[in-house]
Amino acid sequence: MRNRLIVGNWKMHGSMATAVDLIMELEQGMESVPENIDVAVAPPFLHIDEVIRRSSNTRLLMAAQNVSAFEVGAVTGEVSSTMLADIGIRFVIVGHSERRSLFGESNETVAEKFARAYFSDLTPILCVGETQEQREAGFTEDVVLEQMYAIIDRIGIKPLLNAVVAYEPVWAIGTGASASPEQAQEVHALLRSKLASESEGQTVATRLIYGGSVKASNSAALFGQADIDGALVGGASLDAKEFLTICKHAGK
Ligand code: PGA
Fold first, then answer.
1. Which atom of ligand 1 is nearest to the CA of 98?
2. Residue whose CA lies nearest to ligand 1 atom number 1
3. What spacing in Å lies between the alpha carbon of 20 and ligand 1's midpoint?
4. Active-site residue, from 47, 96, 188, 249
5. Which of 241, 101, 237 is nearest to 170 (CA)?
6. What is the pLDDT along the chain (252 residues), one digit of tens a residue?
7. Which is nearest to 95 in space by CA: 112, 81, 79, 82?
8. Partner of 135 at 20 to 30 A CA spacing, among 73, 108, 145, 169?
9. Ligand 1 and 168: CB distance under 6 A
10. Using CA positions, which residue lies closest to atom 9 of ligand 1?
11. How many A from CA of 70 to the centre of ligand 1?
12. What is the largest CA-CA distance in the chain?
C-alpha cells in the first residue's frame, strides 16, 4: 500500500517570520494527521534552512521548489541537487507549469533536473499537465504522456517507479477551479496504466498526486478516487489550518 503524500508548495510567498510561524503551526497540528500520511512542505529557498531547523523533530518532510539542471560549478544563481540533499531535503519539484511557462523549461530540461535529483537520492516530484487550449483540442493525454516519456527517454523507467508524479492541469492552478475528481482520476488512471506497462515487471511504487486549486472543501472528494495518492497544494498550503485539514482528509 502506498502512503498518501501531501505536499505544500509555498511558492514565492512570505518572509522569514511568516515561514517560521507557518512551520510552527504545522508542527503543532501534525499530531492530528494520521501516521500513514506523508506530509512535505516546499518553502522558498531562502527560508528552507531555518524551516528545517525549526521542524527537525517532526514528521514534516522537506521539499525544494526547484533544482539546477547542472551538477556543479560556475552557474550563477543556481542551487544543485547535492546542495539540497546535503541540508536534508527529501523531495524536489521538477517541471512545475510555472517554470515551464515563465522560464521556458523544456521537457528536456525537466528530464535533466529529474535525473540530477534522482542521482542525488532526492525524490523528484514530476509535474505534468495540459493547458485549457490543449484540453479543449483533445490533447490532454498526448501532453501528459509526452511530459512523462521525456523522463523515461532520459533515464529509463526505474527512477520513475519510486518517484512522485503530480498531475496539475494548468487551467486549475491558482484559479480556484479544481479539476473534478472524475477528470483527475481519468488522467491518473492513464498515467498509472502507462507506468505499469513500461515497468518491465518491477513494482510500480510511484505516487500519483493531484494539484490545482486543492482546498479543504474539495480534497476529500479527490482523495476518494482510486488512483489519487495525495495532493500538491499551492495557495491553500499557506494557511496551516486549511492545509492540515487537507492532510487529515487524506487519511480517510
Ligand atoms: P494551487 O497551486 O493549489 O494554488 O492551485 C498548485 C500548484 O501550483 O502546485
1. 8
2. 234
3. 21
4. 96
5. 101
6. 689 999 999 999 999 999 999 999 999 999 999 999 999 999 999 999 999 999 876 789 999 999 999 999 999 999 999 999 999 999 999 999 999 999 999 999 999 999 999 999 999 999 999 999 999 999 999 999 999 999 999 999 999 999 999 999 999 999 999 999 999 999 999 999 999 999 999 999 999 999 999 999 999 999 999 999 999 999 999 999 999 999 999 997
7. 112
8. 108
9. yes
10. 234
11. 26
12. 48
Q: How many CB atoms lie within 10 A of CB 25?
A: 15
Question: What distance in angstroms lies between residue 187's CA and the mean position of ligand 1's atoms?
Answer: 17
Where would I find the H helices in 76-225?
81-86, 97-102, 107-119, 132-136, 140-155, 158-161, 181-198, 216-223
Q: Which ligand 1 atom sits nearest the alpha carbon of residue 93?
A: 9
For residue 228, the tally of other CB atoms under 10 A from its CB is: 24
Backbone angle region of 50, left / alpha / beta, with phi > 0 → left and psi within -120 to 50 → alpha: alpha
* Grid cell for residue 10: 509555498
Cell numbers given for 91: 523531495
Rounded distance between C-alpha atoms, residue 60 and residue 5, angstroms: 11
Give the nearest ligand 1 atom to 174 CA: 5
Contact 127, 94 (CB under 8 A): yes
Query: Cα of 200 to ligand 1 centre, how many Å?
Result: 33
